Amino acid sequence: MDEVIAWATFAGAWLLVAGPLYQGSVELNELDVDRAGIEGKAAAAQAAQARPSAWWWLLPPVMYLLHRRWYKALRQAMLAQLTPTQREQMASFQSKTAGWFTVAAGATLLATGETWQIVQHHGWPAWLFWLLIVAMLSAAILNTAVLMISDARTRHADGTEPALGT
Asked: Is this structure's pTM higher than 0.85?
């Protein structure tokens, strides 16, 4: 019975990772956001801001500070160009993204603990733990991608929206 419980908690923990990834993707995809307008203004703002030289990576703390300063200036320039509606849409999108990312990150931490329990339970080597983490996280991400593509194809079959890649 211990074996069944160990595998059930392992599988359940990884389902708690896959679920928020998929649900977050669905909700973010359904948001009514002027993506083209925001992306166009973001590209224009980025073209106007000089990115720090890659040479600064030789001094990572300095690069971190320069990149942070560059990003803040870029964000301010972009926000200044957005309409109030676009700013509201962007804020809503970012808050939902942060919420779903937090849920998925928390679930990943729980799943990591359950993965470690399985590895210890079976006396497997530590490298297998890392392999399982990568494999299960990849499976959760792949599951989301496959389901999102399937959803898009289903909507396209109804004629309500263009298919992906067209």
From this structure: no
